[in-house]
């Protein structure tokens, strides 16, 4: 089987490739990635000489770059995206180009090359926000109601993927997954930003009142869910993926992280809130379990601890990343007061 992975140099994409090569050594993987600020080939160093793995640098929004890599591909697993909400608030245009136009360019090429499956990786953020005080969860029937430029572009891409199935018969599947954490996550996202800041002696910036809730999922659980969907998912269907419903507000997570690093709460500071900040996400993945036999296996406390250990042991990985462009972004987002 020849698998084209887009965005395979990013956080979830690289975890997916490492897992796939280990568990399906007979398959051929092409990693197609533009290497934006978020792409890092160091994540894949351990497999770079594997004869069944190949990296091709390219932009999913450029049809002349996508065309050649799509030839002979059986399965597309589409991770490539601009993925950070705060950056989408500062500068939405690249989100529209990559997440919407890029997805359409890939869909056209997949159709032209008769791929057997186009699997699109999406997010629970397309459903909007839940109240803090009720117990509703997102499910397969929840209406789309995206509220940030990021989630609006992911929603647009989901609609396009489904439209290519209904209109042209492209064999697609979609997963809408909750917030991931784990190794190789870019330190702009909350958990790795918090861990690496404390290691560097800086504070954890907690937005607003800190009472925002995400449905955290360890990245390997997400990767296993994608594997199940590729193996057993029904063409045309959307599967929801989420964590073990240990719904900690951000401030609690910040407190857990400082404790794990042997520091006190003076390492936490409340800062200006994110614009349009979604209050709560929570995913009902029971249908996915019923149909595919998948469920999350990594609980939050143990795997947050292991994630903290990973960042402690891999300082050279994130220190390189937290330089150059990252410093400019951090200044605009957290220090200038301009947002
Ligand atoms: P990431 O930002 O870590 O990685 C994105 C990757 O895509 C990078 O390697 C980058 O170089 C590449 N890329 C960006 N624009 C590109 C372009 N125009 N052409 C080719 N490659 C390009 O993202 P992630 O956190 O690994 O997320 C991967 C996917 O999963 C995204 O589609 C995201 O929406 C989705 N998702 C993420 C989460 C999460 O918690 N991180 C949760 C649910 C869904
Ligand atoms: P993030 O990791 O950016 O994921 P998303 O916005 O896609 O859910 O943020 C997770 C939560 O943490 C979210 O409620 C915003 C909050 N947050 C902070 O409080 N401080 C920060 O510096 C960041 C990046 C996020």
Topology:
Layout: E1 2-6, H1 11-23, E2 28-33, E3 53-57, H2 63-70, E4 75-78, H3 85-90, H4 93-112, E5 117-123, H5 149-168, E6 172-177, E7 180-181, H6 190-199, E8 204-207, E9 217-218, H7 219-232, E10 238-241, H8 250-260, E11 268-271, H9 286-292, H10 300-313, H11 315-321, H12 325-335
Parallel strand pairs: 1-2, 1-4, 2-3, 4-5, 5-6, 6-10, 7-9, 8-11
Helix pairs in contact: 1-7, 2-4, 4-5, 6-8
Nicotinamide-adenine-dinucleotide is lined by residues 6-7, 9-13, 33-36, 38-39, 59-61, 79-83, 98, 102, 121, 123, 154, 177, 179-180, 186.
Protein name: dTDP-glucose 4,6-dehydratase
Pfam families: GDP_Man_Dehyd (PF16363)
GO molecular function: dTDP-glucose 4,6-dehydratase activity
Folded structure, characterized:
- The protein has 339 residues and is an alpha/beta fold.
- The protein is 42% helix and 14% strand.
- The protein has a domain at 2-181 and 216-241: NAD(P)-binding Rossmann-like Domain (Rossmann fold).
- The strands form 3 sheets. It has a 7-stranded parallel β-sheet with strand order 3-2-1-4-5-6-10, sandwiched between helices. A two-stranded parallel ribbon has the order 7-9.
- The chain starts with a strand and ends with a helix.
- The model has no long low-confidence stretch (mean pLDDT 97).
- Thymidine-5'-diphosphate is lined by residues 85-86, 179, 189-190, 193, 205-207, 212, 214, 250, 274.
- Thymidine-5'-diphosphate binds next to helix 3, helix 6 and strand 8.
- Belongs to the NAD(P)-dependent epimerase/dehydratase family. dTDP-glucose dehydratase subfamily.
